From TrEMBL:
Gene Ontology BP terms: nucleotide metabolic process
One Gene Ontology molecular-function label: catalytic activity
Source species: Anaerobutyricum hallii
Designated name of the protein: HIT-like domain
SUPFAM superfamilies hit by this protein: HIT-like
PANTHER family per the UniProt record, alphabetical: ADENOSINE 5'-MONOPHOSPHORAMIDASE HNT1, HIT FAMILY PROTEIN 1
Origin: domain of life: Bacteria
Signal sequence region: none
Catalytic residue list: 101 (tele-amp-histidine intermediate)
Residue span of motif Histidine triad motif: 99-103
Domain HIT, residue spans: 7-114
């Protein structure tokens, strides 16, 4: 499915110009126009999925297989020191385009980018309660 009013669907269809790094029948990989670091890429499925909750397992598997290929190419070409994979779902989590996409953000020593969060303390009892709740929903 393609959504006519979706920015990433338009990019995937070639209606909007992008700095395309890779393309096949399932995905388009582009350079982010507002990069966190040099070489920041987005992997965009050509089929429209609003978020990870809508993504099917087959597409997810192909996406992560492609992500490993792109990550290795980025390490080779950009000589980055590391890499973050970031995927946001919902406005509260920072999703700004409602079309599933995976960020590959090359990291460089001293780049100043901070993707860390404050760690919370949790009791063993709370941990077990959460574990059982999630396990029950699988």
């Amino acid at each position: 499915m393609i959504k006519e009013d979706c920015l990433f669907c338009k990019i995937a269809k070639g209606e909007i110009h992008s700095a395309t790094v890779y393309e096949d029948s399932h995905f388009t990989v582009i350079l982010d126009v507002n990069p966190a670091t040099k070489g920041h890429c987005l992997i965009i499925p050509k089929e429209h999925f609003d978020n990870i909750y809508d993504l099917d397992g087959e597409t997810a598997g192909k996406l992560f297989a492609l992500a490993t290929c792109i990550a290795r190419a980025m390490k080779d070409a950009l000589k980055c020191d590391g890499l973050n994979l970031v995927q946001n779902n919902g406005e509260v989590a920072g999703q700004t385009v409602n079309h599933f996409h995976l960020h590959l953000i090359p990291r460089y020593e001293g780049d100043g980018l901070n993707l860390n969060w404050p760690q919370q303390e949790i009791s063993g009892e709370q941990l077990e309660e959460i574990r059982l709740s999630i396990k029950k929903s699988i």
